[in-house]
Write a structure and sequence with these properties.
It is built from 9 helices and 33 strands. The protein is α+β, with helices and mostly antiparallel strands. The radius of gyration is 25 Å and the shape is globular. This is VWFA domain-containing protein.
Length: 596
């Protein structure tokens, strides 16, 4: 599955016995193109007689849109989805397919994509507060569009021949058509060497000329990324000198690693830093399996951009145009959040400086407080817009609380539900630190970021590139306790960590016919594929929920999951160590998936 990480646990299961696995996670939904999107994978892998998916959304503002779609290439769920509105801020969706409408083989395989947004205004957004932590969501509307300068840096090396280059041409035709009035642009192709079209201001004539240039592209030669970036930055500097108050964006598209000219990753990164000097934001797109995504991620992060994988599939052109749409309309640049007053602990804040704010997105800042947030706390938001300096001072906070815990009680069997905002703070801090580590320009800075991220990850049981997932089988005494009190308090599942693979769980022991406990083993396997915003259904019941967070559960199994450093974990009882990437976390919905 696209954008899906794989979580695998090997267990031994008695013949004809049943195993149900509970997995709980939280996720931060990113707002893209004006909507929050949550993908729910529905493919149990075998015929299912009755299947129900319930999605409940609790919001702090009124809905402006809400719909359910399916993904290209997946099964069409059609009229199997029903919708109820419970007031203007709560909605429920249910997927309940008719067994008669199931595929002939009875196997469901597809995705439900829930998309929604809320009503907004030209304001500082919402601030949620809970037990000493706050999160600030900033997504104002009615800001004036700021014309941009954008450079498309396109790999036309030999490996781009055939379908890839055809799809790029299709995407660029659409992108050029949808440039905005006032934009300036450039197109640079590179293989063994780089060649530029030249900087042009958007008009029907220049767009027609650019499309002819794109159509003439042919694949061949090596991959000289350094030369391509050199030409792109030199051209961008020329544009900056002529118009300084304008977002400058470079979009690099490549399907491989450097093979011509400078091929050392570290040298290329250094060259780009020295040439760019923080003037242009660099976004990197890796096309297909051969793209070096780690290198592209470092290149983008060191130049204040992001990277994304473009999957080599029939909809690759749509993926490319979709990415462009996300950054096509910059509203603000050089945005800085600052908080004054005694309540906010400034040294605990997550990222507060953002190079761009694009239409349809959302900026998020979180931190700790020493006491209740009130009118004594002032937030200043500054930046640059179309008309020059942008300033928004906030003292009249729109303070809201997360959903009442009773709405989420069925998701958390631990005695005390977790503090969602605290976990979001920890997640964003770790995410920022891992980005700092990847963008670090020297070993000392890299080590400092790693140490800080490791401390927060371990305290919050997050699985990251610096920590491992530890799966531990309880000892026999604990197993007997579970058996003796399956229906009592000791038989309840204990959920301590709730990100994908980022939790500690202790649950009732499943038994075979001889009352022997099951052990972890490499002969039989139960796998669970998951996405920062989706579920791969196995069996049993699964549940998700949140207030800007998703939670998902599946069923009790006698193991304990926790995060630990990737070194020095010798001596634990039977366990499996899994190292996985930190997954993105957010949403505001509740999902219950039941297979009967």
């Amino acid at each position: 599955e696209r954008e899906t990480s794989r979580f695998r646990v090997d267990v031994t299961v008695a013949d004809q016995d049943e195993v149900i696995f509970y997995l709980t996670y939280e996720e931060l939904l990113e707002r893209r193109l004006g909507t929050y999107s949550h993908r729910i994978n529905v493919h149990p892998g075998y015929p299912v007689r009755d299947l129900i998916v319930d999605v409940t959304i609790h919001e702090t503002r009124e809905f402006s849109s809400l719909n359910v779609t399916s993904v290209p290439g997946g099964q069409k769920f059609g009229n199997a989805v029903s919708e109820w509105r419970e007031g203007s801020r709560t909605a429920r969706l249910q997927f309940d397919p008719d067994p008669e409408a199931m595929p002939r083989n009875g196997v469901i395989h597809g995705q439900l994509v829930v998309q929604y947004d809320v009503k907004r205004a030209l304001d500082a957004g919402d601030v949620q507060v809970e037990d000493g932590y706050f999160v600030h969501f900033f997504a104002p509307i009615d800001l004036q569009y700021t014309p941009k300068h954008i450079t498309f840096l396109i790999d036309v090396s030999g490996s781009m021949s055939g379908t890839k280059l055809t799809q790029v041409k299709t995407a660029m035709d659409h992108i050029l058509t949808n440039l905005n009035n006032g934009d300036t642009f450039n197109i640079i192709r590179f293989s063994t060497t780089a060649h530029k079209l030249g900087i042009m201001r958007y008009s029907p004539v220049t767009v027609r000329r650019a499309k002819q240039y794109i159509e003439s592209l042919e694949a061949g030669g090596g991959t000289n990324i350094d030369d391509g970036l050199k030409v792109a930055i030199e051209e961008d500097v020329e544009a900056i000198v002529s118009e300084s108050v304008r977002p400058h964006i470079i979009v690099l598209l490549t399907d491989g690693s450097p093979t011509s000219g400078v091929t050392s990753h570290s040298v290329i990164l250094k060259n780009v830093r020295n040439r760019n000097r923080d003037r242009a934001t660099v976004f990197c797109l890796g096309f297909g399996r051969g793209a070096d995504m780690d290198f592209l991620a470092r290149l983008a992060l060191q130049n204040h951009g992001t990277s994304r994988k473009i999957y080599e599939d029939e909809d690759a052109a749509e993926q490319l145009t979709g990415f462009y749409r996300e950054l096509s309309t910059p509203l603000l640049l050089d945005i800085q959040f600052s908080y004054s007053g005694d309540a906010v602990m400034v040294d605990t804040l997550s990222k507060t400086h953002f190079y761009n704010y694009f239409e349809g997105t959302e900026l998020i800042v979180t931190g700790q407080t020493e006491n209740e947030l009130d009118a004594r706390v002032r937030a200043n938001i500054t930046g640059k817009g179309r008309n020059g300096q942008f300033f928004m001072g906030v003292t009249d906070w729109n303070l809201v609380s997360p959903p009442d815990h009773h709405l989420l009680s069925h998701l958390h069997l631990a005695p005390t539900p977790p503090n969602f905002i605290k976990r979001l703070w920890a997640f964003l801090k770790v995410k920022d630190l891992l980005a700092e580590e990847k963008a670090a320009r020297g070993p000392h800075d890299r080590m400092v970021a790693q140490k800080k991220a490791l401390i927060i990850a371990l305290e919050n049981h997050f699985v990251t590139p610096l920590t491992s997932l530890v799966v531990v089988q309880p000892d026999q005494e604990h197993c007997k306790d579970y058996e003796d009190d399956e229906d009592g308090e000791d038989g309840e599942t204990r959920d301590e960590v709730s990100s994908s693979g980022q939790r500690t769980q202790k649950g009732p022991m499943q038994r075979d016919d001889n009352n022997h406990s099951q052990s972890l083993d490499s002969q039989n396997s139960v796998s669970h594929a998951f996405n920062p915003a989706s579920i791969h259904v196995l069996s049993g019941d699964e549940v998700m929920d949140s207030n800007h967070f998703i939670h998902n559960m599946a069923a009790p199994y006698p193991i304990s999951l926790s995060a630990a450093p990737t070194t020095g974990i010798i001596g634990c009882p039977v366990m499996v160590l899994l190292t996985t990437l930190l997954l993105t976390i957010v949403t505001k919905m509740q999902v219950h998936i039941a297979i009967k």
